[in-house]
Amino acid sequence: MPKPTIVLVHGAWADGSSWNAVSAELQGQGFTVFTPPNLLRGVAGDAAYVASFLAQRTTGPVVLVGHSYGGPGDHQRRHDRW
To answer: Tell me, what's the pLDDT at 77?
Structure first.
């Protein structure tokens, strides 16, 4: 079974670099990891942006992780994709 792609979405008071330590650890274990920008323009628009990012850059299983403000958008993206 292939390893899932890990997508880490930051919260409102951070940027993708807040995931650097986690990203490095996961990449060291052989995972593909993305930390897309969270545009912070509203949950619906941000969810649509990350959903588009996922559609363009991932295939197969995805683990989507959202911190703080990134979480509600992840909930929406999960329901839009599956």
So the answer is: 47
Task: Please tell me whether residue 4 adopts helix, strand or coil conformation.
Answer: coil
| Backbone φ, ψ for residue 71 (5° rounding) | -65, -50
Give the closest residue to 65 by CA, choosing from 1, 13, 2, 18: 18
The model's pLDDT over 23-80, given as tens digits with 9 standing for 90+, comes to 999 999 999 999 998 888 888 888 888 889 999 999 999 999 987 765 555 545 454 5
What is 27-79 written as a DSSP string?
HHTT--EE------S-HHHHHHHHHHHHHHH--S-EEEEE-TTHHHHHHHHHH
On whether the CB atoms of residues 57 and 32 are closer than 8 A, the answer is no
Q: What are phi and psi of 54, to 5 degrees?
A: -60, -45
Torsion of CA 28, 58, 36, 47, to 10 degrees: -140
Fold entry, domain 5-81: Rossmann fold (3.40.50)
